């Protein structure tokens, strides 16, 4: 009795393309949720000005409390790229420690939380997998 096995690489290519498309979609889903969580963190951490707490209390006539917090914008440029911006004239000063309310900044603190945001997004997708605590990714 002869045994014959016929394999077609095109079938494998099709399967790999489907897996790849699913992986790409998963990465985009986790990316989007991570960016949204980062944005929410930045907005939440942005102080509402209280001149009594300022290092250099000088009230400009154009200043209105809450302007910095309200000025954050999140734009998804594509499925793989997003921009978080704030064009108030003093945003960088506050990020650099100008505010006693948030001397460590808003962006720096939020960026440090990104690994946790990624894990939360992955857990929401897969259930609680504890991927990052398992040691699976220690080599990366």
Key structural traits:
140 residues; mainly alpha; two-stranded antiparallel sheet; 5 helices; 8% strand; elongated; disordered C terminus
Structure summary:
The protein has helices at residues 9-45, 67-70, 91-95, 107-112, 114-126, and strands spanning 73-78, 81-85. The protein has 140 residues and is mostly helical.
List the helices and strands and how they pair.
Layout: H1 9-45, H2 67-70, E1 73-78, E2 81-85, H3 91-95, H4 107-112, H5 114-126
Helix pairs in contact: 1-5
Report what the structure shows:
There is one protein chain. The protein is mainly α and about 140 residues long. It has one domain. The protein is built from 5 helices and 2 strands. It has helices at about 10-45, 65-70, 90-95, 105-110, 115-125; strands at about 75-80, 80-85. α1 (about 10-45) crosses α5 (about 115-125). The protein is elongated, with a radius of gyration of 23 Å.
